[in-house]
Amino acid sequence: MSAETFWSALALVLVIEGILPFVSPGGWRRGFGQLMQLRDGQLRFFGLCSILLGLFLLWVLA
Length: 62
What we know:
3 helices
């Protein structure tokens, strides 16, 4: 993976992450508030699922 690919991927993540707070700041705030109420184990589970889904998509698309 080249540095250009890495920075492009990082830029795309930032764009995608910024869409919801831009389009619906109230909904984003409510969702974030619900995330803050989750236990550490629940957050880790969702983080692990996100990592595995991302790795699977990279494997399928590569």
